[in-house]
User: Which sequence fits this backbone?
């Protein structure tokens, strides 16, 4: 199990995309999938949402002209707003979805965590700690051989996060009506404005 995870993490370091998303117009996203280039200049949205202490990043795109839908979501911590972050589907709670006339793919976390109540051995441990210690984890067979990488770079103004730049890449299973095959996703870049949805305090009973 640990060899499997270490190998995946090593591949993640080697495959990171180092590019210049700052050159894109704000709200733009581009990538190459199965040799075909996709470019959406101004319809990408980014939301940082916190619910009951759990913070998630959502990058969503819906292009009705090209009939493309693309979304990325990942759990994050406070460092997202002030430092560069690297995520991978084999290690983080990272999901990616793509659909187009040429086909589509779905990537979700390769490592599945069992519920805390099943054992005291891993109750209270973070996701990263459980993965490295092999406590209460299992590997998804559907995601074996597939991976998605996401790098994010925050841009702040007057102390507030206003923009997120980044890159992404991976190996996905591209499916269409005719066939399904492994495909390389590369040269992914985005530059998007950020909308922040703060956590709402829980209402007390009777109020």
Assistant:
């Amino acid at each position: 199990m640990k060899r499997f995870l270490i190998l995946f993490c090593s591949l993640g370091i080697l495959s990171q995309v180092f590019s210049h998303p700052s050159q894109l117009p704000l709200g733009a996203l581009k990538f190459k999938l199965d040799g075909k280039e996709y470019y959406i200049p101004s319809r990408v949205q980014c939301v940082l949402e916190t619910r009951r202490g759990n913070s998630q990043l959502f990058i969503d795109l819906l292009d009705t002209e090209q009939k493309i839908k693309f979304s990325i979501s990942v759990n994050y911590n406070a460092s997202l707003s002030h430092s560069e972050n690297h995520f991978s589907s084999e290690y983080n709670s990272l999901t990616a979805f793509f659909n187009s006339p040429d086909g589509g793919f779905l990537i979700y976390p390769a490592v599945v965590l069992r519920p805390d109540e099943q054992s005291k051995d891993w109750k209270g441990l973070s996701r990263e700690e459980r993965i490295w210690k092999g406590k209460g984890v299992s590997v998804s067979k559907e995601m074996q051989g597939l991976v998605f990488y996401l790098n994010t770079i925050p841009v702040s103004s007057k102390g507030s996060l206003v923009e997120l730049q980044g890159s992404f890449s991976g190996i996905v299973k591209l499916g269409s009506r005719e066939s399904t095959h492994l495909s390389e996703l590369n040269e992914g870049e985005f530059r998007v404005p950020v909308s922040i949805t703060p956590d709402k305090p829980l209402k007390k009973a009777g109020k």
